[in-house]
Amino acid sequence: MIGLRNSELLQAAVSLLYPATCAICRKQVRAGEYLCDSCEAKVIRIVPPFCDTCSEPFEGSINNAFTCVNCARRTIHFEAAVAAYRGRGIVRDVIHEFKYNRQTHLRHLVARWLRTALDDERLRDCKFDVIVPVPLHPARQRERGFNQAALLAELLSAHTSISWRPLLERVRYTTTQTALDRSERMENLHNAFRSRKNADVRGLRVLLIDDILTTGSTLSECGRVLKRSGACSVHAATAARA
Ligand SMILES: [Zn+2]
Ligand SMILES: [Zn+2]
What we know:
- The chain is of the alpha/beta class.
- It has helices at 6-17, 37-40, 69-72, 89-100, 107-117, 121-124, 138-144, 148-160, 182-189, 217-228, and strands spanning 81-83, 130-133, 168-170, 193-195, 205-213, 233-241.
- One zinc ion is lined by residues 22, 24-25, 27, 35-36, 38-39.
């Protein structure tokens, strides 16, 4: 390494931390990027029409705002849950690497997707007092080594200057939600969360953060707890929507 100028040293250090290869196909990528152009092109944006409440995309042509059947027939405890990307293919793979394969540098890419959600008109003009990550159960967090939602909340906070605070805790170790239908999910989540001791959310406009939105049940349950504790509004943003 002797003889390298400072900037080269820095670059070498950076490329050790963030190898300049595509997170998916390992092809060379441009500096500061995580995906090559062909993988990037496969990332799917959510485009209208979609449900105003939970962002579920709808196949077909609807020009006015609408609420999907699932939102229409349940009580939702958030104002809107917004995602800008489909959690499929490349996006799902990147989030999977980030969460389960300890590729934590990919949080920067996932946070970029999350930030795109904030440009949505349902969030753009909102003022938020605090960013709150969806919590993991302590046992799961120990096993994983981190809470992905907290890492994203931290990056979003740095970018928006809205402070982030882990105001919720997960008190029930729930089984994985993947195989459950909507009502089973709600049952599974009942009393899974609570406000942390000394967390004062009264009167706060909360931006709730998670990596991926599946049915919105988790976000809604967190919203219920936050509102019961006095939060005045709860909007949610996620990096992707299943
Ligand atoms: Zn690639
Ligand atoms: Zn909906």
